[in-house]
Structures are given as structure tokens and as C-alpha cells.
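Quick illustration, no need to memorize.
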Amino acid sequence: MAQGDVASQQITQIEEQPDHSVRDELEGGARPLNSIEEVLNMTDEGECWILGSIVSVESGVHDWCYLACNNCPKKVIEVKNGYKCKKCFRILADPPVRYKLNIIVADGTGCLNLIVWNQEGKLILGKSANEVRALL
């Protein structure tokens, strides 16, 4: 990609976790392994793996996490008697904290700005968002 070019592409989150390991999936060829440059140049939607390094975690004091419903992963809003889920409308007294990390990943062919959600955030940091928040 030439300097100054900007590429933007929607990257969707896979809702289900595979029953096998990443190694099984890479060796079995279920999804191709692509470079970031190849992903940025894709014209069709598809699923693939990217092997890269996290070079930056962009976060401020309050934008690395959010309060979530414990029934679904949606953000809750504060109401007079607690917190209300925007999706299932449940009222919660003490909602859990979930990760929403903005990371930069690079692989030598380019870089991507990605959002990492709760499960992946736990894997990267080795602690739950509630545990990290308690340290602050």
C-alpha cells in the first residue's frame, strides 16, 4: 500500500468458538492464512487468519471497557434504580465489566486497527476486565 492510502473494510466477529484448536484450523486449511495487505485488498467478504504482532493498545482511562448485561454482551445504561440493558431491557444492580480494546496489529505488509472484545482481551491480558478495573 502506498504511503497516504487509506483502506477501510468491515471485519466481522465470529460469534461461535470452534470445537478445535487454532493449530487444527490452520493445518487443516479451513480458513486461509492471509497477510494484512491481502486482507486490505480483498474485494469479497470471507474469513481468514492473520498472523501479526500487537504493536499498540490504544486506550484512555474509560474507553478500554464497558459495563455489560450479564445475560447478553450488550452495553448497559445507568438508570435511577441501577443499570438497564439496551438489548434485553434487564435491570442490573452491579453489571460486569467487559473488555473493548482498540489494538493496532502489524505483520510487515501493513497494519490494522482492530477492536478486541472480552474473551480475546482476557487471553491477551491474562486477567478479566473486572480484575484489571479493581487495580485502577
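The CA atoms of residues 126 and 132 lie 10 Å apart.
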